[in-house]
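debug: dumping io for the single-chain case to check the tokenizer round-trip. Nothing else runs in this session.
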Amino acid sequence: EEEEEEEEEVKSRSSRDRLAEWWMSHPDAPLGLSCDAESRWTHNLTTAASMISNNHGGNNGNARGSARTTTYIMGLPVPPPLFRPRLPARTVLPDSERVQVAMVVPFVPFQLNKVVDLLSTHWAEHPPCHADTPAQSADLVFFTEGKASDRVRDELRYYFAELGGTNANATGNGNATAATSCFNSAEPIFLSLNDADAELSHLEGAAYSFFSLFELLESKYRSFFLAEPDVAPVQSDWVPALVEQSRKLVCDTGIWQLGSVPLVADVEAGMLRDRVDYHMNGNGLYVLGCTEFEDYKCRVQTHYVPKDECSKVAGCGTHEAYEGGYDHALYHFRMHPDNYEYSRLVLHRFAYSNFVQNRGEAIYYRSTQVMNEEPSTYFIHSKSIYVDAAATTLKEVVVSALRRDICIEGGDDDTARKELESIYTKLRLREYDKNDALRHLCVSADSGKFGPVKPVRHICDGNSARPTEEQRAESQEQSIVAVVGGRLELIQCEVSAIAAAGGSIRILNDGGETGADTFAVILCMTLETCVSAVKQRRPVIVYASALLREPRQNGEDKRLRVDNKDAASTENLMKWLRSIKDLSGAAETSVAATTIFVNSVLDQEYIQ
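debug: decoded output
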């Protein structure tokens, strides 16, 4: 038993020694932002390593500078940290006067349009408050790495004020409307980080901002909810629910972090299942002003040293595949065997919750569906709310089958790009579903079109479950198809606008040569009406052509010429559509709510 204990002690010492040696041999490496900036070692390498290895003395409480001080949690000794944690600022306000929670929406300049869309679309559909919601101890904070310009601030204030209309209520809450009146502050608060390195990568910038937020917020708030621009509400009146959830975060007796596990449908994406990845996504709730949590974060940033893609910020990832991001570092630290003695005593401080669901790249679910399935969910994190479904599906397929990101390295770049474009186009046209895209990708990879990158065999060989009829029906209900014809170059503007709104574009020609007299117009509705319908996920008809054929009558094939300059064209086309409807024996429905595919190439057949 003594030999086994000694062997375990040697293993423990060696891992700590290696970590100490790295930091001592990299004196200029940036220290973790959650660590005390003055606790950098001044000893030589040998002394520092021996300080870690031969630590036996100690007292209760957190380590304060000397590596000889033993840390005790629940009366049990744990390995001391290499660096002491940053001490939370003494609050400017008494604790009783601190606001309970700050909802922090971080963004960089190019994401401004996303933030505007978040407010004008998702918050407008599910406003933060109801007219009769009492005042809540919560603020909305927009966070930027550099100071937001006056134009940006004014634009966000405008959309915040527009929520719920301009009916300023009688609560006396400044410029707040009924939809925002329950916030503690009448207007959004703008917070910035002015000392961030402009050369930071995406991972480094996100980690630097995250770890900096604690010091910036702790003097005024007890907790904060980090909600990036792709975190959208799925229920209305969510501010009271946010405040209620935040009360679970208490330094001494509660939890330190509350969030969601990965909930993407494709568990092969990013090797989630193979890696047994239960990391808690960064979009969640965090306690503020907690020395013990600062100690935890400092240990994380010490363990995951600044190197490689995280050379400028400690703890911005684990340096392993698919584990880039501070949220991965926070999770994998407590799962690492080197940290077992410490982590087992703080695991209860981290709580999974469906208050916010991390759907990652997954296609955004309708709010009504989420509410019915999980009434406790108020927010969904899904990048796809700003990306069309085809792009989301393509990325999922590439990541799961090729273990690569969508930008594939190796091989003939032009060949690989053309293959991906081909798959994407078929997905957009709904000629492919996810299984079709997967088969296409696997065949292309096997034939060497992605260079040395080969597909994962069990993914390609496995027969993925086909969608049920109910799923297909639901997908069709949500799909929008714009059918256009004629010369594509004449309708680029319309195609771009419809695609940007989320429509799927299908190009149909009339057969034969496309001459200069081929019109390219959108009938039945204006472009603005079409885009509006697409955004509202309503089925629409968009058809453009120089030549339409009426159904055969008395054996005669009547031709109906549609002139884009003729205002009567719309009425003529509607008559033609009604004829199709009557012949097909369709149920009595509004023609305008029926998506009709017209194929004038194959024997002039009409397909509904």
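debug: round-trip ok. The radius of gyration is 29 Å.
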